[in-house]
């Protein structure tokens, strides 16, 4: 299958990981095989036509076309989009996350590959994504066209370079989505937001947009079907999503956070905004990303080694 890709595997003990697996995925209503094939054909048509349409569309209209493509793709996945804007009036934008040319770092919990489609359906954005995505057939080409910033989670010494790339994009007025958990969770459980990538917002004095992202079934209950966890491959996950019925991708825009001067404080503030009163079902303790185990990785904010820490109003479209 052209969309197939292997699951992410932890190569080192300090690599971000979650305990979520097949046991977290709970069944939901399903469509028949005919609808599933039609959805797959629609997705294939979008993937194949997107590069051509993007090139032929004038730059002034590309964002509008890209958002339309993302929303159509979400519908082809059998999902509806619900956007709830809890921001104060002066932070709101009719364009989505921010007005064109206004930089913003968007942070959200990470559930699966559908997160990218759901967030792009709000407004076209760039992403920090797993490095091997750019090698995936077809999807890799799309990733390159949307200027994905690749991150190799198994090579933490490269992390300061990624932070620098994010800062450069923000300084140029771009909108960048980061998933600070560093890996995917099932949607009912989640990990802590790691502070490293927040340094880019501090370095560029860029506001951070916390996003509460979740998937709901037709009864409004949390749905774990889109979770890309455990031993999932992309093909297995895509098949599960394409079979589902009545899933809603809900995106809640919480008030923006001022970057401040401390990335750990910024990460904590954003985590509070993103999680609210929710508690992780797995109850996993915070595990450091830069500082973990016996590994000491250069701190991108101050240029010196970090200390070692042991693990201890809504619309529907």
TrEMBL record:
| InterPro entries found in the cross-reference section | Plipid/glycerol_acylTrfase
Q: Name one GO molecular function term.
A: acyltransferase activity
Q: In which pathway does it act?
A: Lipid metabolism
Q: Where is this region: Disordered?
A: 296-317
| Ranges in coiled-coil conformation | none
Where, by residue number, does the polypeptide cross the bilayer? 36-58
Keyword annotations of the record: Acyltransferase, Lipid biosynthesis, Lipid metabolism, Membrane, Transferase, Transmembrane, Transmembrane helix
Q: Which residue range or ranges hold the Phospholipid/glycerol acyltransferase domain?
A: 104-216
The record's section on PANTHER family has: 1-ACYL-SN-GLYCEROL-3-PHOSPHATE ACYLTRANSFERASE (PTHR10434), 1-ACYL-SN-GLYCEROL-3-PHOSPHATE ACYLTRANSFERASE-RELATED (PTHR10434:SF64)
State what protein this is by name: Lysophospholipid acyltransferase family protein
Q: Which organism is it from?
A: Nocardia lasii
């Amino acid at each position: 299958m052209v969309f197939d890709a292997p699951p992410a595997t932890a190569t080192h003990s300090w690599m971000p990981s979650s305990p979520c697996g097949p046991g977290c995925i709970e069944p939901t209503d399903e469509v028949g095989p005919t609808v599933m094939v039609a959805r797959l054909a629609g997705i294939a048509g979008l993937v194949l036509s997107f590069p051509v349409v993007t090139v032929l569309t004038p730059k002034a209209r590309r964002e509008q076309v890209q958002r339309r493509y993302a929303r159509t793709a979400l519908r082809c996945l059998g999902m509806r989009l619900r956007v709830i804007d809890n921001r104060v009036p002066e932070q709101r934008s009719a364009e989505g996350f921010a007005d064109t040319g206004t930089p913003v770092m968007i942070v959200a919990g990470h559930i699966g590959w559908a997160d990218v489609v759901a967030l792009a359906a709000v407004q076209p954005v760039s992403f920090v994504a797993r490095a091997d995505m750019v090698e995936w057939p077809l999807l890799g080409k799309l990733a390159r066209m949307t200027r994905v910033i690749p991150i190799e989670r198994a090579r933490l010494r490269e992390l300061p370079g990624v932070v620098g790339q994010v800062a450069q994009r923000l300084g140029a007025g771009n909108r960048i989505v980061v998933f600070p958990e560093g890996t995917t969770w099932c949607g009912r459980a989640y990990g802590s937001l790691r502070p490293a990538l927040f340094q880019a917002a501090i370095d560029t004095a860029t506001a951070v947009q916390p996003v509460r992202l979740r998937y709901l079934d037709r009864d409004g209950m949390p749905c774990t079907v889109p979770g890309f966890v455990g031993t999932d491959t992309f093909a297995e996950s895509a098949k599960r999503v394409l079979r589902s019925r009545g899933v809603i991708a809900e995106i809640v825009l919480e008030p923006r956070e001022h970057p401040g001067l401390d990335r750990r404080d910024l990460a904590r503030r954003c985590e509070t905004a993103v999680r609210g009163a929710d508690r992780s079902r797995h109850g996993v303790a915070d595990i450091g990303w830069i500082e973990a185990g016996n590994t000491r990785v250069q701190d991108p904010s101050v240029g010196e080694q970090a200390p070692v820490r042991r693990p201890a109003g809504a619309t529907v479209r």
